[in-house]
Amino acid sequence: MLKENLSNALNRQFNFELYSSYIYLHMSAYCDRNGLKGFANWLNVQAQEELAHAMHMYEYLLERGNLPVFADIKAPDFKYNNVIDVFEKTLSHEQIVTGRINEIATMALKENDHSSYMFIQWYVNEQVEEEANADIILQQVKQIGENTSMLYALDKELSTRVFINPFPSKLSTN
Ligand code: OFO
After folding, report:
1. Structural domains in the chain?
2. Which of 15, 125, 156, 166 could link 71 by a cystine bridge, Cβ 3.0 to 4.6 Å?
3. pTM (2 decimals)?
Protein backbone atom coordinates (compact mmCIF):
# COMPACT_ATOMS: atom_id res chain seq x y z
CA MET A 1 0.00 0.00 0.00
CA LEU A 2 1.18 3.53 -0.76
CA LYS A 3 1.95 6.04 1.98
CA GLU A 4 -0.93 8.49 2.33
CA ASN A 5 0.91 11.52 0.95
CA LEU A 6 2.00 9.58 -2.16
CA SER A 7 -1.41 8.08 -2.70
CA ASN A 8 -2.95 11.57 -2.42
CA ALA A 9 -0.43 13.01 -4.88
CA LEU A 10 -0.97 10.18 -7.38
CA ASN A 11 -4.72 10.54 -7.03
CA ARG A 12 -4.47 14.27 -7.68
CA GLN A 13 -2.34 13.54 -10.74
CA PHE A 14 -4.78 10.85 -11.96
CA ASN A 15 -7.51 13.52 -11.95
CA PHE A 16 -5.18 16.12 -13.44
CA GLU A 17 -4.43 13.80 -16.38
CA LEU A 18 -8.19 13.58 -16.97
CA TYR A 19 -8.28 17.38 -16.89
CA SER A 20 -5.40 17.45 -19.41
CA SER A 21 -7.45 15.21 -21.68
CA TYR A 22 -10.39 17.62 -21.33
CA ILE A 23 -8.36 20.67 -22.27
CA TYR A 24 -6.76 19.05 -25.32
CA LEU A 25 -10.16 17.90 -26.54
CA HIS A 26 -11.39 21.48 -26.02
CA MET A 27 -8.48 22.80 -28.12
CA SER A 28 -9.12 20.10 -30.72
CA ALA A 29 -12.73 21.24 -31.09
CA TYR A 30 -11.59 24.86 -31.55
CA CYS A 31 -9.17 23.84 -34.34
CA ASP A 32 -11.78 21.63 -36.00
CA ARG A 33 -14.32 24.46 -36.09
CA ASN A 34 -11.68 26.77 -37.56
CA GLY A 35 -10.94 24.51 -40.52
CA LEU A 36 -7.72 23.03 -39.15
CA LYS A 37 -8.50 19.32 -39.14
CA GLY A 38 -4.84 18.28 -38.87
CA PHE A 39 -4.29 20.41 -35.75
CA ALA A 40 -7.59 19.01 -34.43
CA ASN A 41 -6.29 15.48 -35.03
CA TRP A 42 -2.96 16.17 -33.28
CA LEU A 43 -4.77 17.54 -30.24
CA ASN A 44 -7.31 14.73 -30.26
CA VAL A 45 -4.44 12.20 -30.14
CA GLN A 46 -2.96 14.27 -27.30
CA ALA A 47 -6.28 14.02 -25.43
CA GLN A 48 -6.26 10.23 -25.89
CA GLU A 49 -2.68 10.06 -24.57
CA GLU A 50 -3.67 11.98 -21.46
CA LEU A 51 -6.54 9.58 -20.89
CA ALA A 52 -4.06 6.68 -21.18
CA HIS A 53 -1.84 8.41 -18.57
CA ALA A 54 -4.84 8.73 -16.25
CA MET A 55 -5.70 5.04 -16.68
CA HIS A 56 -2.08 4.05 -16.07
CA MET A 57 -2.16 5.94 -12.75
CA TYR A 58 -5.58 4.51 -11.90
CA GLU A 59 -4.24 0.98 -12.41
CA TYR A 60 -1.08 1.69 -10.42
CA LEU A 61 -3.16 2.92 -7.47
CA LEU A 62 -5.22 -0.27 -7.57
CA GLU A 63 -2.15 -2.43 -7.97
CA ARG A 64 -0.64 -0.88 -4.85
CA GLY A 65 -3.82 -1.55 -2.87
CA ASN A 66 -5.21 2.00 -2.95
CA LEU A 67 -8.65 3.08 -4.03
CA PRO A 68 -8.57 5.69 -6.83
CA VAL A 69 -10.38 8.84 -5.72
CA PHE A 70 -12.52 10.64 -8.29
CA ALA A 71 -12.64 14.43 -8.17
CA ASP A 72 -14.65 16.94 -10.20
CA ILE A 73 -12.95 17.69 -13.50
CA LYS A 74 -12.86 21.42 -14.13
CA ALA A 75 -14.42 22.49 -17.44
CA PRO A 76 -11.85 24.15 -19.74
CA ASP A 77 -12.55 27.89 -19.80
CA PHE A 78 -9.87 28.92 -22.28
CA LYS A 79 -10.59 31.32 -25.10
CA TYR A 80 -8.28 31.09 -28.12
CA ASN A 81 -7.37 33.86 -30.54
CA ASN A 82 -5.52 31.59 -32.99
CA VAL A 83 -3.33 28.45 -33.12
CA ILE A 84 -0.37 30.35 -31.67
CA ASP A 85 -2.50 30.90 -28.60
CA VAL A 86 -3.49 27.20 -28.54
CA PHE A 87 0.15 26.08 -28.51
CA GLU A 88 1.24 28.73 -26.01
CA LYS A 89 -1.41 27.30 -23.68
CA THR A 90 -0.32 23.73 -24.53
CA LEU A 91 3.31 24.48 -23.65
CA SER A 92 2.47 26.26 -20.43
CA HIS A 93 0.13 23.43 -19.41
CA GLU A 94 2.87 20.87 -20.01
CA GLN A 95 5.32 22.96 -17.95
CA ILE A 96 2.82 22.81 -15.06
CA VAL A 97 2.54 19.03 -15.48
CA THR A 98 6.35 18.69 -15.41
CA GLY A 99 6.46 20.52 -12.07
CA ARG A 100 3.79 18.23 -10.62
CA ILE A 101 5.55 15.08 -11.85
CA ASN A 102 8.87 16.24 -10.40
CA GLU A 103 7.17 16.82 -7.03
CA ILE A 104 5.80 13.26 -7.06
CA ALA A 105 9.27 11.90 -7.93
CA THR A 106 10.82 13.85 -5.04
CA MET A 107 8.10 12.61 -2.68
CA ALA A 108 8.62 8.97 -3.76
CA LEU A 109 12.35 9.26 -3.07
CA LYS A 110 11.76 10.86 0.33
CA GLU A 111 9.40 8.01 1.24
CA ASN A 112 11.96 5.47 0.03
CA ASP A 113 9.25 4.09 -2.30
CA HIS A 114 11.37 2.90 -5.21
CA SER A 115 8.45 1.29 -7.07
CA SER A 116 6.67 4.63 -7.19
CA TYR A 117 9.92 6.35 -8.09
CA MET A 118 10.36 3.94 -11.02
CA PHE A 119 6.71 4.35 -11.98
CA ILE A 120 6.95 8.14 -12.11
CA GLN A 121 10.27 8.08 -14.00
CA TRP A 122 8.35 7.18 -17.16
CA TYR A 123 6.55 10.52 -16.79
CA VAL A 124 9.76 12.41 -16.00
CA ASN A 125 11.07 11.31 -19.41
CA GLU A 126 7.72 11.77 -21.11
CA GLN A 127 7.52 15.39 -19.97
CA VAL A 128 10.76 16.22 -21.81
CA GLU A 129 9.07 15.02 -25.00
CA GLU A 130 5.72 16.67 -24.17
CA GLU A 131 7.32 20.08 -23.71
CA ALA A 132 9.55 19.67 -26.77
CA ASN A 133 6.61 18.66 -28.99
CA ALA A 134 4.50 21.63 -27.88
CA ASP A 135 7.43 24.00 -28.25
CA ILE A 136 8.36 22.93 -31.80
CA ILE A 137 4.79 23.39 -33.03
CA LEU A 138 4.60 26.74 -31.23
CA GLN A 139 7.81 27.93 -32.94
CA GLN A 140 6.48 26.75 -36.30
CA VAL A 141 3.10 28.48 -36.01
CA LYS A 142 4.83 31.68 -34.88
CA GLN A 143 7.11 31.61 -37.93
CA ILE A 144 4.18 30.81 -40.24
CA GLY A 145 2.22 33.82 -38.95
CA GLU A 146 -0.37 34.85 -41.52
CA ASN A 147 0.98 32.59 -44.29
CA THR A 148 -2.10 30.44 -45.00
CA SER A 149 -0.46 28.01 -47.42
CA MET A 150 2.29 27.21 -44.90
CA LEU A 151 -0.33 26.82 -42.17
CA TYR A 152 -2.24 24.32 -44.32
CA ALA A 153 0.99 22.42 -45.06
CA LEU A 154 1.63 22.07 -41.32
CA ASP A 155 -2.02 21.13 -40.80
CA LYS A 156 -1.55 18.29 -43.31
CA GLU A 157 1.54 17.08 -41.48
CA LEU A 158 -0.26 17.09 -38.12
CA SER A 159 -3.11 15.06 -39.60
CA THR A 160 -0.80 12.01 -39.74
CA ARG A 161 -0.38 11.65 -35.96
CA VAL A 162 -1.92 8.43 -34.65
CA PHE A 163 -2.65 7.32 -31.11
CA ILE A 164 -0.60 4.40 -29.81
CA ASN A 165 -1.41 3.38 -26.25
CA PRO A 166 1.90 2.89 -24.42
CA PHE A 167 0.11 1.07 -21.57
CA PRO A 168 -2.07 -1.86 -22.58
CA SER A 169 -4.41 -2.40 -19.61
CA LYS A 170 -3.40 -5.04 -17.05
CA LEU A 171 -7.01 -5.10 -15.86
CA SER A 172 -8.47 -6.36 -19.12
CA THR A 173 -9.62 -9.98 -18.94
CA ASN A 174 -9.48 -10.41 -22.73
FE1 OFO B 1 0.15 13.46 -19.27
O2 OFO B 1 1.40 14.27 -20.34
FE3 OFO B 1 0.81 15.85 -21.12
O4 OFO B 1 0.06 16.60 -19.73
Report:
1. 4-158 (1.20.1260.10)
2. 15
3. 0.95
